[in-house]
Design brief:
15 helices; 295 residues; mainly alpha; single chain
């Protein structure tokens, strides 16, 4: 085993980072699979309480290393606002994964950089050039294609997916602000504390008692998410951010394969066309930001 580890560390940093990110995307897709499997019996609020409760336990070593002093924050109100946005976004992700095909729900996650462009202007006061604006507008045309408005009525899950992406993007903007003073352990600590508080009441109201098998599945939602996040952090810490960001799009392939073989979902032409437009637009934004030296 030690020999394989040595060979792995001998790889170029970008290759190691890419492998970490690919593993992270695989675990995120595993999370979506479990959410879809349990979605017929359990409300997103009940899934969320498992997500934050088990997640808090798994992250306890990080909180201990961060220390009691650093876990105290002067920006508790901002942590509270960020937690509201992100926890609502988490419940929205569960809802869209349950009600949309996995490939569609995954592709809609990739709209976050598009919303970040708009939010960066109004919140961070960033100056956005014409190239990024055009890429953002083109990206949203891909969203419209995926929503298939040509037949008249549009499934509400598409609207939830868009709002979810906006909520998470807003949360990411706040993380940028919080990160100026608070370490990651502090941000994650208050995120999970507030998540547990927010979902305790709704989860109790919609509670369905799980079987032993379902207890395991619900705990796996948080476990797979935590493992995926760990791999992502490792990937972005050793590889170039612009390159690591592009590796995340392999998640769409994993999601399409999982949807096909597990849930017999067959993405149609509009899924691939719309997803292709969204991915192309966000890739352009990522590359353009890398060239201009922005983080």
């Amino acid at each position: 085993m030690s020999g394989y580890i040595e060979k792995f560390h001998a790889l170029p940093p970008n290759m190691r980072g890419a492998l970490f990110v690919i593993l992270g995307t695989a675990f995120f897709v595993l999370t979506d699979i479990v959410v879809k499997l349990t979605g017929e019996r359990f409300h997103p609020a009940q899934m969320s309480i498992f997500r934050y409760g088990v997640g808090f336990i798994l992250l306890a070593p990080l909180f201990i290393r961060t220390g009691r002093v650093k876990l105290r924050t002067k920006r508790l109100k901002l942590h509270f606002v960020r937690a509201i946005l992100a926890t609502l976004g988490q419940a929205g992700i569960f809802y869209t994964v349950i009600h949309l095909q996995l490939a569609d729900a995954t592709a809609m996650n990739f709209t976050r950089p598009l919303f970040l462009t708009i939010l960066a202007i109004f919140i961070l006061k960033e100056v956005v050039g014409i190239h990024r604006w055009c890429a953002t507008l083109i990206g949203f045309t891909g969203v419209i294609v995926m929503m298939r408005p040509f037949g008249g009525e549009v499934d509400i899950a598409w609207g939830v997916a868009l709002v979810t992406a906006l909520l998470f993007s807003s949360g990411l903007i706040i993380i940028r602000i919080l990160g100026r003073e608070d370490p990651p352990g502090t941000i994650l600590f208050w995120y999970h504390i507030f998540g547990i508080i927010f979902f305790a009441g709704p989860a109790a109201y919609v509670w369905v008692h799980p079987t032993l098998h379902e207890w395991v599945l619900l705990c796996l939602i948080a476990t797979f998410t935590a493992i995926g996040m760990n791999f992502f952090v490792r990937g972005f810490s050793v590889g170039e951010s612009s390159l690591m960001g592009t590796m995340e799009y392999i998640r769409l392939v994993f999601a399409a394969l999982a949807g096909y073989f597990i849930f017999t979902e067959v993405p149609d032409m509009w899924t691939w066309v719309g997803a292709g437009v969204i991915v192309s637009a966000t890739l352009y934004i990522t590359r353009h930001e890398a060239k201009t030296g922005k983080t």
